[in-house]
Amino acid sequence: LEMQKYAMLMFTSCGWFFSDISGIEAKQILQYASKAMELANNISGAELEEVFLQKLEEAKSNLAEEGSGRNIYEKMISESKRRKDVV
Hints:
The chain is mainly alpha-helical. Helices cover about 65% and strands about 0% of the residues.
């Protein structure tokens, strides 16, 4: 149920309303997705993150310095793990 909660939170409308994946709303959505994938892996051993990252690579930020969704996700997740943030 916890995994389903985070999977549903990934579709929060404010995260997809704005036109840039580097915005704070989209970054929150990416954190929800990360947590859902982590729980899926813990429960079933499913490795979903690499396919997810391949899809994120196609999403380019409007800000050239931000790069792709993959860049944003990897930076955000690495910073989050370093701080030991919890979604």
